Amino acid sequence: MTTQRTKLADARRTPRFAGLVTFGRYPRIEDVAPENRPIDWAIYGAPFDSGVTYRPGARFGPRAIREESQYLKPYHIEHDLMISEVLSLADAGDSAVHTYDAEANTATVAQFATDLPDPGTTKPFMLGGDHSNTLANMRAAYHRAGKPAGGLALLHFDSHVDTLDEFLGERYSHASPFIRAVEEGILDPKRMLSVGIKGPLNTRDDLAYARDHGVTIVTCEQWRREGYETIDRLRKAIGDAPTYLTFDIDCIDPVFAPGTGTPSVGGFTSYEALALLRHFASGPIGPPNLVGADVVEVLPDRDVAGNTALIAAHIVFEILCLDGLRKRC
Ligand code: MN
Ligand code: MN
User: Fold this and answer.
1) Which end of the chain is less crowded, N or C, counting CB atoms within 10 A of the terminal residue's CB?
2) Where are the domains of the chain?
3) How many A from CA of 174 to the centre of ligand 1?
4) How does pLDDT run across 11-23, given as a tens digit for each residue?
5) What does CATH list as the number for 23-328?
6) Kind plus residue range of the DSSP H or E element containing 46
């Protein structure tokens, strides 16, 4: 008999359309069996979207992702990985938020994620919410990983680099999480890889900070033209360093993922997004040493038939599988 690190209801007996909703039908954190503690990943929501520069509504993202995740099955065909046998996973509910103040919200969400049980073992996986929440979860991941010298490495999927110093006079918004993270010493820009960047932008200066500080940018166009060469080079440089992975759903083309607040055309197909993540397992270096992750910017009111939230749930699964593969090694 195989061990179940994550106890899942048998969907052939308890159907996926029945019961209370948690991410992936994983147990609530308070319900995890004693033999499965400490858990590997605490999945929680950050329902905050007052850090957006355009359309609001991502505060409803965590609920929508959980709803669509009911159809997320645990076995990964390509990796031959049964995630519930390798990782202990749980839904930790939603963080408190500070609805009218992005800087205060960052502190509130960071405190919630820092206070999750078993730091050093349990890693925080955040469902956004807008991208300003990522600074909060990165802060928590950095502390929980024992404040690694030089800060975390970052694998960043997005249409936007999110390194503007300010937007409409505000220093805390979804346009600025990574410049703040560098200033706080929790992110090493020389080990930051931004994949899927595309325009148009307000000005060419929008990329200046990232370029001046050694961030590696792989535009969507460049990846189509050159493939994985630049990605592999930086992945090799990162090696086993503690790494955070952030996935802004707007890197996927709005045809596939219309439910987002700052849509950018010409993005990845849903298949390409999955393939990019799977590459980190099959590439020359092996799965990264993840200490925290998130999927952000899902805006259900602009979604069609739940597509965007469904893709988001599968992106969460792909990221967790990378860690499952690493643990299995
Ligand atoms: Mn972003
Ligand atoms: Mn974006």
Assistant:
1) N
2) 23-328
3) 6
4) 999 999 999 999 9
5) 3.40.800.10
6) strand 41-46
